[in-house]
Amino acid sequence: MTLDFSWLGDPLYQQWLITGIGTTLLMSLLGILLMLAIGIVGALFLHFRIPVLETITTVLVELFRNTPPLVQLFFLYFMLSSVGLSLTDPVTGRTVPLFSGFTCAVLSLGLYNGALAVEIIRSGLIGVPSQTVEGARSLGYTRFQTFRHVELPIGLRLCMPAMTNNVVSLIKTSSQAALVAVADIMYGATQIMVETFRNMEVMLLIWALYVVIASLVVVLMRRLTSMIRIPGYGVDQA
Amino acid sequence: MTTSQTSPLIEMRNVRKSFGLFEVLKGISLSVNDGGVVCIIGPSGSGKSTILRCINGLTPIDSGTIRVGDFSVESLRSDKKLIPLRHEVAMVFQQYNLFPHRTVMQNLMMAPVQVLRQNADEVRDRAEKLLAKVRLTGKESAYPGELSGGQQQRVAIARALAMEPRVILFDEITAALDPEMVSEVLSVVRDLAAEGMTCVLVTHEMRFAEEVADEVFFTDRGVIVEHGPPSTLFKSPSDPRLKDFLDKVL
Amino acid sequence: MNSELRTFLLGIVGVPLCLLGLFAAVYGDNTGAMLGLMAERTPTLLTGSPDITSLDGGFLANIAMSIIAMAIAAVGGVILGVGLIAEFSIVRHVSDVVMNVLRNSPWLVVLYAMLYLLPFEVEIFGVYVTISPFIKSVIGLSLPVAANIAEIFRGGIQAIPSAQWESARSLGYRRLQILRHIILPQALPLMIPNLMTIYAMLFIGTSLVVVTGASDILSAAKVIIATTGSETASGFYIYILFLFFLFAFPIAILTRCLERRIGSVSL
Lengths: 238, 250, 267
Prior knowledge:
heterotrimer, B: alpha/beta, 4-stranded antiparallel β-sheet, C: MetI-like fold, 2 domains
């Protein structure tokens, strides 16, 4: 078995790969932001046991985390594209569909990993000692102020290890966006394979690319975790 | 001061509270004068801490009345309505209950700025003076987890004082401390009492209670069995349960 | 009512209602006709054949793949896990690298790679065995799952206090004996909830095998949609979501019940 990576010298393929990496990173970043927003808001609904919203959150969380994200993405893509909303690009004047593959992929990543994040953040909140919460209440903090200034900051730190896994999961899941024609790393790879027939080499390369990106993100998240670590507080063991 | 000399600052009348089927408070009545120092003693599980928690509204009561200054606590049902009360009534806990993710200085400043909406610079000046008072100058940027138990408890007292309360409730504040740290915390409380701060203490430190209290209440199984000035209560207890208790702890 | 039961009832009623609502919102007046069409195609979705003559495709294939891949991954995971706690630091480091690489690999990419890395057929004792897309999918799925299992294995072992090792050693046990007779019996119950979570993840992940050409439920759906028209796609995807949910959700609830009773390994 000999591997031939000479195709990597072609500027066109380099260009495709770099564009792919950029798209994957951007899609993941937007997905992470949406995931965090959904996670925090959902955890808030569950934590405060807000009537109706709590029930809806529970149902949606169970729906999203117990079904395949790929099918969720396909469904979003087919349903939203059939809705057919479009925007007019102010620069080029062209109409672009509002729910492009990219938008759908970001939405789907945000929803699937957001559903996981709801549970992760909620268990972080449960880990906040009740005495600390009581301290805030005795100083006149309302329930929401207590949440914002005390429970959430401590709870988010407590759930950093699980959140790191969730972020890595989101980046890995993003590779399925290629199946709705988002020009990410995975998509770039399939394009190159079609042209070069160096299937094995291309797949090995992008496999390595994803592993490197995920490992770098793990390192980044660990650094972030130690940056926001509370001195003298047993967050690490939690 | 809106309250006259004749009416006490805190007045509890026939307060009852049950947790599930267990009645913790079975008709508690007590009063605390402005500037007074009151100690509540009694065996564990007798409802001492619950009394304190009812006074600042952390635990809602089932029946009876609690008046603090001009507030009738039992009628304050929402967080918003409780804020002015908590401005006046501060609490210090056994487990300190500091915010672990904020520095000492931030712990002192947070509530006055975020809850009372006071000017941050003024609060900082006040907080520095309070840290000096509890002998912790220089620890402004330390995190609670980096301090000893005694130091954390003094920060908690300073945090309570930063709210400029009219009364401070102390809930077994030395119970979780190593023996050698008890005195540094008690001496801070002693200073406060001497300055005329109204204090209500739940404590197991009988000698300290005897020294600082104007009046001591002995609770057992949800009722106040006996109360009076420490000299009479400790020297010549009349109730057999109190005698029994004092025999065990002294 | 305990919280798991409450969540279970909410989910098992709420999620189908939610999906049905979506369905009705997409199809409006045609909802009835679409439901009829899907009922008619149900055998194909479930088994891959319209008249249930064979049972090796569709949703059943997803279930079969998840079970076989879990078995392979369990064996691989334990081997890798023993490597993670090996005495020789070289073995430990190599196992750690392998685990991290597999754990950080997107499943989709691994599945794609299996298409090209694995040969079309292999010769075993003179017999040529074709490596079908089914087998490639199973191997591709079991690789990252083995890494996850190895990590759970290590977490479970480490959750047992080191005093257990010491006291067993003082009784004359050797390392592997201690692991087998003393540590694992205590650690295994702790690992079960995590293993169930991994299995649920694996099952959900079988949706990705569509890229290998295996005849799973998604490829069955693709064939159907090609004949019934793309406007029916949303309906079939909702149906597939529903099927996966029916299978995965009870496992998730059971896992949480166990977790509460016996605890779990924190990784």
